[in-house]
Amino acid sequence: MKKKTYINGVGCISTQKTFDTVFLEEAAYNQNDTVLSIIKPDYKDFISPASSRRMAKGVKNGIVASALAMKDANTENVDMIISGTGMGCIEDSEKFLKNILDNNEEFLTPTSFIQSTHNTVGAQIALTLQCKGYNFTYVNGAISFESALLDAKMQIEEDEANTVLVGGIDENADYTLSLFKLAGFIKKEQDQPFNLLTETSPGVVYGEGASFFILENEKKENTYAEILDVEIINTLEENEVETQIVSFLKANQLQISDVDAVVLGFNGDATFDGYYKNLAENTFAQTPQLYYKHLSGEYNTASAFALWMASKIIKTQEIPEIVKVNQVEKPVYKTILLYNQYNGKNHSFTLLSK
């Protein structure tokens, strides 16, 4: 008998006020900036100022988000730490490369290099918690977080762990953003105001964030939701997504009508948002539809923000007006499906249940 996987704690640092609040009541939709920046927590409540000074913001946000998740789950120890990140500690990577150029490749301090690896966040959290268990970081583009989530779920199902800390972290860095703008990944200033649901221009509004979750094999009073299933598919055509969703739901003894809300990864890139529009207009026309990248921005692990949002909706049974795509409502939100893709690749489906 496979063990079930429950979300028992969540922590989220994002481009919105997602800490010290109930749920998105202070969220604001910024339609003028092409890059959204993190709303910083008070780091000194979680990290000593001496350590904090040497840490990149992605590491700090990861530590704070994981601490919030653990506090929320009322736990002090975890068996494993599994994280996903697309760009890793890109700020420190840039710093190190800049130092190489500025110093003609001589007299370099290794600190930035040491802290520029993708697994720095998982390592720092492990040091903070003194967790000597399995510690793994997935770097897998837009499905980095789902890869971590799938691993965590399998560890719990196979009874390898009782409590797993799993999360997704990405940070912005100036030089990388300037390259993204040159490459046309980010929207042009002159295309504002940006309305992600009706965009006709290519590119996205970029963001950053860190979301962590405590997954456990037992249901508790503070449980948010059960993770029923996670599926990752590399390439799908627009007309194949519906068939894939139907078979994904069928594998979990569900059908389209059983889905109480669907969370779609609209990011305003007119070239690829057809994947979501297709589903919104046809497959899920009678289902409450939600979106989130207008609040979080697009980044490799933005889907972790979506999972945080969906967990909150199942627990509070309320959907904030700011995340609604349509006005369909259900009396109760028991089953939520999350679907995300990036540039037509790396499709992920995550199924949550009350």
Automatic annotation (TrEMBL):
Keywords: Transferase
GO biological process, one term: fatty acid biosynthetic process
Domain Beta-ketoacyl synthase-like N-terminal: 47-219
Keyword Transferase in annotation: yes
Domain of life: Bacteria
GO molecular function, one term: 3-oxoacyl-[acyl-carrier-protein] synthase activity
InterPro entries (alphabetical): Beta-ketoacyl_synthase, Ketoacyl_synth_N, Thiolase-like
Record protein name field: 3-oxoacyl-ACP synthase
Organism lineage: Bacteria, Pseudomonadati, Bacteroidota, Flavobacteriia, Flavobacteriales
